[in-house]
Amino acid sequence: MMIEDRKGSRKLSWMHIALLPGILFFSLLHGIASSSATEFRTGDLIKVRGETVWSPAQVTRDYSWVPYCGTHRETKKNTLTDFLNGNHESLLDYELEMGTSQSCKVLCIAHLSLDDLKRFELLIKRGYRVELTLDNLPLLMAMESDDDRRSRQGYPVGEIIDDEMIIHNHIDFRVETQRNGEASLPSSTWSIVGFRADVKSLKVKQPELSSNCTESSPMILNPSSAELELVMTYSVVFEEGEVAWESRWDAYTSTDYVIRSGKQLLFLSSLIVAGLLGVYSLLVFRRAANDSASLSPYTGNDFVLEEETAVGFEAIRGDVFRTPSSPQYITALVASGFQVKYYLPIFDII
């Protein structure tokens, strides 16, 4: 009977080993889909998504926490990285058509309440930046003090000039593209290799007055006012870039994106390691204390039996850790259960 159980467990374990190539192929399909270039035809609508607002010394928040307008039409299904980082992207109302440059379009009009103004004040004082993505590329903005090769991720919510806070309500998008195929072919497509922007503050009260977003007085934030009408505008320019699609992420190695992500991962990893070390140390010390008590049966004039000190885990370890009748069958079932429980949700998120 024991031989039959072992044969059955061997068949079961070999069956799960045979399923591993299928699981790996399933994961590779997801990886290939996420690493292939997205091709756009001229006139195709490109989706802009709002990711997070972050500050080097403050808590990262979702884009929806900022009282902007023109959001929440759709929510993107997050990847595993987004799920672990706590990112929740939202589809925005920017209408970017491939190859079509647009000048000063009105995104929306937001009527900010007193609470919204206080929230903007908090974001501006603490140096928050807004992260947008286009075809999975984060938005880059050139740094004013350094050369053009140095950039920062996202754009600032606003800035303080002469003790006055202004809101950046106009964005000049610059999308760098790469042609796929010959230029003479009518069916040629484009891929996005760069996503950059510049921001400024414009005091516009009505949409019809923003036909050309020229230099004007900035939109000053007054937290004591009861309400403020905020007109969000944008412009977009498409230009053919010199960077290949395979190298489009090289520009992010010179930004603070890698440094900030590395610091966050290092901090989170340190917290996890510290927590695990604390739990492990507690278990080791308790085990050492129990072993020390069992090796010292005499306490003064009283004789303490080892069986009397065996309480809790010590009392039940014999029942819990006894050898099962079919160890290989139990091992195969437990391992299969863990694989199904943890791998399938991860693949679904990816």
Q: What oligomeric arrangement do these chains adopt?
A: single chain
Q: Main beta sheet, described?
A: 6 strands, antiparallel
Q: Portion of residues in helices?
A: 25-40%
Amount of beta strand: 25-35%
Order of helices and strands: HEEEHEEEHEEEEEEEEEEEHEEHHH
Query: So how many helices?
Result: 7
Contiguous uncertain segments of 5+ residues: 1-34, 303-308
Distance linking N and C termini: 44 Å
- Report the radius of gyration as a whole number of Å: 30 Å
- The chain-level mean pLDDT equals 73
Describe the structure.
InterPro entries: EMP70. This protein is α+β, with helices and mostly antiparallel strands. The chain has two domains: 2-26 and 267-349, no CATH class; 39-251, no CATH class. Helix content is 36%, strand content 26%. It contains seven helices and 19 strands. It has helices spanning 2-35, 80-85, 114-125, 256-295, 306-309, 313-320, 327-349; strands at residues 45-46, 48-54, 61-62, 90-91, 96-97, 102-112, 129-134, 137-138, 140-142, 151-153, 155-156, 158-161, 164-167, 170-180, 189-200, 220-221, 228-240, 298-299, 302-303. The strands form six sheets. Strands 2, 3, 4, 7, 8 and 11 form a six-stranded antiparallel sheet that branches. The protein has a four-stranded mixed sheet with strand order 6-17-14-15. Strand 7 and strand 8 form a beta hairpin. Helix 1 packs parallel to helix 7 (327-349). The longest helix is centred in the C-terminal third of the chain and has 40 residues, at 256-295. The protein is extended. The chain starts with a helix and ends with a helix. Mean pLDDT is 73; it is low at 1-34 and 303-308.
